[in-house]
Amino acid sequence: MSTVASQIPATGTLSAPGSRAARARWVVIALIPAVLAAALLGLTTGAVEVSPAEVLWVLTGHLDDPFLREVILNLRLPRVLVAITVGAALAVSGVALQGLFRNPLADPGLIGVSAGAALGAVSVIVLGTTVLAPLVMALGVFTLPLAAFAGGLGTTWLVYRLASHGGHTSVATLLLGGIAINAIAGAATGMLVYMADDQQLRTLTFWNMGSLAHAGWTLWAVSAGLVLLALACMPLVARALNGLMLGESVATHLGFPVHRIKTLVVVMAALAVGASVAIAGIIGFVGLVVPHLLRLTIGPDHRYLLPASALGGALLLLLADALARIIVAPAELPIGLLTSLLGGPFFLWLLLRQKGRFGSTTPD
Amino acid sequence: MNTQALAKVSNLVVERGGRRLLDQAGLEIRPGSVHVLVGPNGAGKSTLLSVMAGDLRPSSGEVTWCGQTLDQWCPHALARCRAVLPQDTVVTFPLTAWEVAEMGRLPHRTPERDARIVREALDRAGVWHLSGRDYRSLSGGERQRVQMARVLAQVHDTGPDQPGLLLLDEPTSALDVRHQLRLMELLRVDAARGRTILVVLHDLNLAAAYADHITVLKDGKVVASGTPAQVMRAETITHAWGVECLVERDSLTGCPWVRMRYGLGRATAHREHAA
């Protein structure tokens, strides 16, 4: 034992070579102005050219041009707010579900949570005037987000029961279960669409592709409230999700009430996904791409990854929305199509990379 | 020495699928001692450790630590003084070795001291130089030592006045000879600091050389328990494992030295061939 000299360098500094906490803090802080800048970009982009200065004047009430006020406050500001809400919700629920399943490939869209939420929402849209009328009467503006929440909760629970056995998650079952649930929920949604009338149909088609356009202020406020509630749970689960990265029993040995945490994470993720589906429809891959890119830079510590993902998701969706309006201007591309267009290849690249890692015998 | 810091297991019965994995098993681990659990495959060593770790509920019997049963302990307080090293830990996220070891500090709220404690733990486990490496890219032995560092960081605040318990399931299984010895030396140091240590081992000579107390499990029952000199006897080993061996005494340390009679089958075959 005495022959083994201490390997700590004799410098007096308290360096921590494998710790990325300091960098992670800076990334979180740097993302805040980035989101604000992207929001400003979102307010200036579109068919009508508006300068950033004009945007700021209108927002602060110093410019009283009724046309610009209409464009900025009633057309673009809601979009920007919806993009922030939905982006943050999807990215955070992605992180939460990946922590729960202990797998970085879990995404609310891929594993069927979004489809379940969509089924809940479509049921309310189509059956709200007939079978579900008493429910709509009772819940009012909360009906749509709560129905989406219920759908999301049901599917999350189902996928979890399918893929997890004794603390271990089978990735294959997780993704295959996701395919099955997507198919079932999609078919059920399709049947409801078949029953829908013309008016409902127009709402549905646009909404199935994901859109930031058709959100009213009330629906946005209710959904944003639910998303905020989910985000408020983040600090409660961040440390436990860190422990869960080493497995359920290790997390238990570290003193975390694992079962309570898991329930909270499922509810929190379903709440965030349900709320975002209720206002913007199905927007895929945000929950996969954002956490993955952030983990590469700041590591998987959930104390930083959760807030960074909330900001990163908002940033990504703001930029994607600006892009969706620029590519085919003066029309716009449904945002869900765009994220799938970008996220699909990203997912394939991720799979190829994983295959490479598992296939090779030499560690990198 | 704190005699209160006693870990005690009594009359443990665990049944799974109609099989008795543990049958009235009991043992006592004294504070400041290294207690080694040995036994053939399927004897119930890991099961006993799982029950002590709180992962598995026994059908009957109980586990007490510092005079309180596991159920009476607040999980959070328990996590600050008791650490568990599982046989293997699979990580699917890109954690560095440092970040894995740092997990041991999760039950504590001591951010100002954590960096120093994690550094010391990594150094003691001999993996300080791997701090910045991706845990998933490490070899089996390196991972095991990083996990050991995590465990050391978790119980860092325990000592002679503050009871600490380590439950280690085959911590040497992936280690080379030098690191096996280093780890056992490390456990002796920790025991001298007043920690209570239970280790599952397969190497009988490692157990004989470093244990204060050895318990032999077979078919879920305790078949022998005592000091290395009391337990490491040829008839005990033959009874438990069904192998022939000689037990000698190391001339330098005085520890029992188990010499397996390897190649017996081959010698018989050779004799038969000659005849």
From TrEMBL, chain A:
Keywords assigned: Cell membrane, Membrane, Transmembrane, Transmembrane helix, Transport
Domain of life: Bacteria
Topology class, membrane: Multi-pass membrane protein
Broad class of where this protein is predominantly found: membrane
Annotated compartments: Cell membrane
Annotated Pfam families: FecCD
The keyword Transport is annotated on this UniProt entry: yes
SUPFAM superfamilies xref list: ABC transporter involved in vitamin B12 uptake, BtuC (SSF81345)
Membrane-crossing segments per the record: 26-48, 77-97, 109-129, 135-160, 172-195, 215-233, 264-293, 305-327, 333-352
GO BP annotations, alphabetical order: siderophore-iron import into cell
Entry GO CC: plasma membrane
Gene Ontology MF annotations: transmembrane transporter activity
PANTHER family: ABC TRANSPORTER PERMEASE PROTEIN MJ0876-RELATED, FERRIC ENTEROBACTIN TRANSPORT SYSTEM PERMEASE PROTEIN
Stated family: Belongs to the binding-protein-dependent transport system permease family. FecCD subfamily.
Protein name: Iron complex transport system permease protein
TrEMBL record, chain B:
Name under which the protein is recorded: Iron complex transport system ATP-binding protein
GO MF annotations, alphabetized: ATP binding; ATP hydrolysis activity
Function text: Part of the ABC transporter complex HmuTUV involved in hemin import. Responsible for energy coupling to the transport system.
Transmembrane segments: none
PANTHER family, A to Z: HEMIN IMPORT ATP-BINDING PROTEIN HMUV (PTHR42794)
Domain of life: Bacteria
Signal peptide, first to last residue: none
Residues covered by the ABC transporter domain: 7-244
